[in-house]
Prior knowledge:
Blueprint lengths: L2 H23 L3 H10 L5 E2 L8 E2 L2 H26 L3 E5 L10 H9 L3 E5 L6 H12 L6 E7 L1 H8 L5 E9 L8 H5 L5 H5 L2 E3 L4 E4 L1 H8 L5 H9 L4 E2 L17 E6 L7 H11 L2 E5 L6 H4 L1 H18 L2
Parallel strand pairs: 3-4, 3-5, 5-6, 6-10, 10-11
Antiparallel strand pairs: 1-2, 7-8, 8-9
Amino acid sequence: MNNSLKARQELRARYLERGSEHHRLSSNTQSYGRTVADLYWLPIWSGRKNKPMKIKIRRISQSLCIVLLLLTCGTLSAQSEKSRVRNIVLVHGAWADGSGWKGVYDILIEDGYKVSIVQEPETSFKEDVAATKRILALQDGPCILVAHSYGGAVITEAGTDPVVAGLVYVAAHMPDAGEKESEDGKRFPSDLAKSGAIKKTPDGFTYIDPAQFHEFFAADLPADQAAFMARSQVLNFADNFSATITTAAWRSKPSWMLVAGSDRTINPDLERWYAERAKSHKVEVAGASHSVYASRPKEVAALIEEAASHALEKNL
């Protein structure tokens, strides 16, 4: 047997032995064993006498690249999971209560988040802020504070709490320090504000005329659901809309804004203006009414989860 043939046989034997070891250790034993064995039937050649043999090992290189890619993805996934905020606090708006968040709540819970819902009394702005801070105090770590409508003013004031990592405004007001929601609304008047549908009780609490609630507040919800919401309104004390913000949390916290494209309670142009001023990450839901938090829970939950994934990065 000539030396060249003998050398190739010895080399093949050594690699087959190594392939056997990997066959025992790897979970993908058959695939890997074949990859190693196939090595020896790839072109093996030698040139002139004493020229080193060249072995093509493309298949092994590809396998190693896949393994390294999987390891890298696993590491990045673990890091992403670690940086994600797990606590979500939801705040409802005027003429509503926390039950409207049910669809969003279900999605967030299924995706592994811990969700709390504030039931602010709407009897005074101060008490609504206090109710929100009461729930914030129960959180066991950083949280994303989310609000709809009038609740946006509430979280702007309450969101300065250190536990808040980010703010999400869902078709919501976003006043600055020294501003009032009622005054901001005049920048871009809404259809509701011009309609006369907002009524007031003798003791100063406001509500939307139930006969007009579906049209102005929840046009993209089924009529029976809108009717129930109209008859279960939480009346909001009129002075709440004129409360002056002392410190705007969005000035120091990352924020996200969802614009409801067909909102008739807050003008969508005002929502866009708020987002631009605060440099918020903005998404728009075309055709959505003011009740977008109830009618489009998937889109709302997606934005909240985006905030939860990136709020801590933006706070660095």
